[in-house]
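Researcher: We're teaching a course module on how sequence relates to structure. For the next exercise, students receive a sequence and then see the predicted structure as tokens, so they can try to spot secondary structure elements on their own. Here is the exercise chain.
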Amino acid sequence: MSGRHLTVAEQRVWEAFPTGRTVTIGHSPHMPASDPDTVVRAEVIARLLLGECDPAPGHVPALRLRGAAVTGELDLSGCDVPYALAMTECTFQQEPRLEAASTKLINLSGSRLPGLLMRDARVDGFLRLTGCRSDQPVQLARAHVTGTADLSNASISGAPALHADSLIVERDLICRDATINGELLMWSARIGGTLVMEATHIINPDGVTLNGDGLVVDGGLFCGEVLTPSRAMLSQGELRLQDAKVSRCCVLTGARLSNPSGTALSAERLHVDGPLTLTDATVEGTVLLAGASVQGQLALQGTTLNAPGRNALDASLARIGADLAGTPGFSAHGQIVLDDAHIDGSVELAEARLHNPHGDTLSARRLHVLGRAYCDGLTSEGQIVLNDANVGASAEFHRARLRNPSGNTLTAWGLTVGGALDCCDGFVSHGGMSLTASQVTSAVCLARSTITGSLSLRKVRAGAVKTDTHTELSGPVDLRYAQVDVLTDAPARWPDDLLLDGLVYQQLEAALPVESRLAWLAKENSGYLPQPYEQLAAAYTNSGHDAAAREVLLAKCRCQRATRPPALRLWGYIQDWTVGYGYRPARAAGWLTLLLLTATVVFAAHQPPAAKPAEAPPFNAFLFVLDLLLPVVSFGQEQAFHPHGWQQWLAAGLIAAGWILATTIAAGLTRILSRR
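Model: And here is the predicted structure for the students to work with:
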């Protein structure tokens, strides 16, 4: 049955509806309607969709219209529409209203709309808005689409442009090659399949572009193609994914995110069940991943982050299940923050370029890395902070170039490294380095490196500290209270400003000659400190070099002498000249022999009187003097003869000298015998 009072175009639509045929009227959606034969009233469409026309036997009715100019308001709000609606390349005079409607599939591809109202609607099938043009908001809040929603090539403007909070799409939401001028509001939306936004441009410079706070995507978020970075998203404004949950992967390859005065990507507490790929991207503004959980790799290869003077990347408290990979080509102008982050793989920043000259380039306080920190060829202008960080394997800075005009280049107080800390093979630091209270299971290797600022290894625990003849250390070096198993170095290459108090090492790989080691100790600029000398002597003793150990302890006494009052200093010179502070037993033996021979001649010429002439043995000058000089041994001469006058004073002097010289010799013999 034909409808009453219908135009020619409407009559064609009416007749085609029962069999579901497509009616092509020929109107272009990009030109205004001028031919009355192309106009279809919205009320006629509503009458058809609500069942006024009887279906044809053996056919499924559907409204399929192409190229029409739709006048009036198409209002199906709250209605149960049992038929499919396909109006492609049509121009709508007024906003279609399907609020709280229940419909079959909807296809408005290529149409021009003054907005679209589908709040709380249900679509049993797909929702296709591909190529649509709308200069007013498209409202899909709380809508439910059981199939795929496709907005590819759409162009939408508004505030917000696309209002889709709490939207449910059971399959994919495809927004490929779309242009959104305004906010794409999707907080708490749920996508059962993939969310595809490849080559989509979202422009909202003064606000939020994609607002996906609380968004749930079960099949992966794709904002760029891994193999085709040019098919990436462009976001001008803040892209938000706070508290979002993404399964499989989150791909932002090649993305161009721009919000120079604020946050370009805000993804605090984002949860990704696979990798988060931000490779070959360009970001103007901060990338905020604080508290995020990424079960796979956080990939930053080839990405450039620009946030000068601010945080370029904030991943504090983040949990990454694999590697944080910035190799190769990663660069950042601003600070990288990894404070309290936990990385189950490795941190790979080889050949990366970090620039934040008036602050920290990398702040990784309390960072926990199960793998290694691989920073070979890293270029950093600013300070790298690894305080209280824990690296399970090695930390490698081969060929790294570190510069900080305002302070330390590398500060790592309390760092723990399960393997080696290698700053060697062309490592250059134009600024200080501090590894205070760090723990390195293997070696702290500085071989073939250049450090022009201060180097602090204070309270470090390490299996070894290694430098070599190619190592350049120009600034102060602080080794106070460090504990090292093996110290491998070139003593002459240490700078003059050296702090060694409390340094403990079990072995010196380059132990001799002792003169070079004493010159090394002399570079300690804090004045007389006994511990460095005692430690060096202990190391020589442990390696069996007793003579070298005695030389070190003698040097200790000489250094201490300079701090004494004049009288004690004079006594020190006497001790040094005579017996070498007890560390020259051969010299003491020489003095003892000289005194023995000289006194023997004197007493042989001037025999002292006997104490009891009737009982006295024959006088023997040699044994008499030997009795005086040796405090323990007695040959019976000293008790039998009692010198008087000047001889008595000579005897007293011999007794005192004997005590000093004999004990010196005994101490030397004890040290020698104790080593056998």
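Model: If you want an answer key for the exercise: The first helix runs from residue 8 to 16. Confidence is low (pLDDT under 50) at residues 29-33.
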